[in-house]
C-alpha cells in the first residue's frame, strides 16, 4: 500500500508572508517612546531624577541641545 503524497500549495512557493499586527502592537511602543521623550525634555516632571545631580545635569544638557 502506498501513502498519498501532499504537495505544497501554490502561495507557499512565492515566499510571501502575510502577517498583520494588532493595533496595540504599534500603539504601546509609540506611547512608551513619547512618554520617555517627554520626561527627557522636561526633567522637572521626573521626580526620581532629582536624587542624582549628575543625571539631572545630563538631562538638562540634552534639553539645551534639543532646544537649539
Supply the key terms.
single chain, 68 residues, mainly alpha, rod-shaped
Secondary structure layout:
Elements: H1 10-13, H2 23-41, H3 53-67
Textual characterization of the structure:
This protein has three helices and no strands. It has helices at residues 10-13, 23-41, 53-67. It is rod-shaped, with a radius of gyration of 26 Å. The protein has a domain at 21-67. It has 68 residues and is mainly α. Helices cover 56% and strands 0% of the residues. The longest helix is centred in the middle third of the chain and has 19 residues, at 23-41.
SSE run = HHH
Structural class, from secondary structure content? mainly alpha
How many individual β-strands? Answer: 0
The pLDDT mean sits at: 76
Helices, by number, come to 3
Q: Briefly, what is this?
A:
The protein is mainly alpha-helical and 68 residues long. The chain contains three helices and no strands.
Amino acid at each position: 500500500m502506498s501513502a498519498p503524497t501532499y504537495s505544497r500549495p501554490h502561495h507557499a512557493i512565492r515566499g510571501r508572508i502575510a502577517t498583520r499586527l494588532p493595533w496595540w502592537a504599534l500603539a504601546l511602543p509609540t506611547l512608551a517612546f513619547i512618554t520617555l521623550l517627554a520626561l527627557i525634555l522636561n526633567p522637572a516632571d521626573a521626580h526620581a531624577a532629582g536624587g542624582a545631580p549628575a543625571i539631572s545635569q545630563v538631562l538638562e544638557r540634552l534639553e539645551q541641545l534639543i532646544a537649539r
